[in-house]
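Co-fold these.
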Amino acid sequence: MANNINWGKIYESTAWGSGVSDNSISWGKSYADLAGGGFTGLLDTYSGAAAAYSLRQLSSTYEGDAIVVRRASDNTTQAIGFVNNELDTTSLESFCSGTDGFVTTWYDQSGSANHAVQGTATAQPKIVSSGSTILENGKAAVEFDGSDDELILSSSLGDVESTTFLIMKSFDTAEDVPYARGRHYTITMNPAFNSFEFRDFINNVFYSGDVAALSQFVASLYRATNSSSIQMAIDGTIQADSGQSGRVSFESGSIGSAGGNWWWNGRVQEIIEYNSNETSNRSGIETNINDFYTIY
Amino acid sequence: MAYYTSTTRSELEAYNTLVVNGEGYDGVYTTDWATIIEHPNGSDYAILKHDSYTAELTEEETLGAEWYPETEI
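Predicted complex below.
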């Protein structure tokens, strides 16, 4: 049985927790984390997500990293994990030391390994600018350039019932798409009209929520199979139904664009999607999100 | 942002390879410099120019709107 200690870790106790099988602690993990002491992630409480991308740790059982970052100075890459359940910005900024850093992989924390990736350098969104982590309201954020940046999901989540939670901010005054699945998008930011819209494949607007341009917000979207029931909430408030009817189309998946046609000019901090009806949990999930991000 | 254009896609693929090799991309997390853009006419191509790499290709300061046709959304 090993008794290794890698110095530099955060020790909060000298007692071993039950979660430490080999008496070793690795970088980025605190004793409290390993012992399960006090941390309950969103996915611990609201389990079953089909995909989950975040710059905070969403589950006490998730042991992977948050992202892989490429630094501009020499194009080397490094995986960045969590410290105290948030992105390890100390390691991130140390690695990127004075240069820009770009996300090549945003890991899926749901357990489905449906990671969002981008192999083309110019299309990788930025997370470090001149050595400093990009922050939105004090929390790390991934910034998309509105030109060609996108992270592509490894596999489509399918044309099925879904509940999606997005934390984001737009920089643009034109229509943008933060997250979509295919050529025909389903959700779009339209800051020119201060609205966040949920549309069908022939461009009917189902829901239009008031969202000021350049504001961080959380959108909660529910779509039943064949769009027989649709609901949208902005910052915890359910928006009015536009009265339109139609069917929402879902195809492939990407963060930052709609099928490579429309591009998100802004920041994204978290996207969690369930392939199920989570409307009964919507308020609880939004509270968890707002407790961390302090959006509204 | 400047672009290189050509009617021969392979020339732009070679430019992409030039940048990939020059920048030392790892080939795992980063495999390409930029995506080759195809003009709607089907015969013209463009790629974003890297400031540090030049080639004997036609350089354009910007690509006109004709390169990006409206897409039904």
